[in-house]
Amino acid sequence: MPTTKKENVYFGMMMCVGMVICMTVYNLFTNDLIGKISWIGIVVQLLLGFAVAFLLELFIVGPIAKKLAFSLPYDKSKKLFVILSLTFFMVIGMVLCMSAYGLLNAYLANGLGGQSLFESYLSIVFKNVIFAFPLQLIIIGPLVRYAFVKFIKAKAIANPLSLKV
């Protein structure tokens, strides 16, 4: 999809916005925190979550996921295989990293509630991966790819010098 560094930044930003909003709402719901956290607290969590997720996606998880996805032995000319492999590695990497971020937030807010650090982390990872993977594959991924092609790629085609980096 993205062919330049600038397009990659836009694409990553769009993915992160969608996933962070959905995953934040999901985690607030699963932890029974809706109505217990102020709107300002939720906005702060969204902004911090987005900043962490975007930096991870851009500098750590994204590059590693791309290397892993493109090192697998499959026909790279088939767009579906590329999307599925990239989605798999991105979701796994982001869930592992963002679950650690969530665990740190939970620990700082109210401790671990008697669970060990390892048990808490595994529980968070499990809850997040069962929601994040279908969310990315079925909803956010297709929506972002559609919006990216419609708005970012269309702009690049109309004005080829606008996105070159």
UniProtKB/TrEMBL annotation:
<feature type="transmembrane region" description="Helical">
    <location>
        <begin position="38"/>
        <end position="60"/>
    </location>
</feature>
<keyword id="KW-1133">Transmembrane helix</keyword>
<keyword id="KW-0472">Membrane</keyword>
<keyword id="KW-0812">Transmembrane</keyword>
<dbReference type="Pfam" id="PF11391">
    <property type="entry name" value="DUF2798"/>
</dbReference>
<dbReference type="InterPro" id="IPR021529">
    <property type="entry name" value="DUF2798"/>
</dbReference>
<feature type="transmembrane region" description="Helical">
    <location>
        <begin position="80"/>
        <end position="104"/>
    </location>
</feature>
<feature type="transmembrane region" description="Helical">
    <location>
        <begin position="9"/>
        <end position="26"/>
    </location>
</feature>
<protein>
    <recommendedName>
        <fullName>DUF2798 domain-containing protein</fullName>
    </recommendedName>
</protein>
<feature type="transmembrane region" description="Helical">
    <location>
        <begin position="124"/>
        <end position="148"/>
    </location>
</feature>
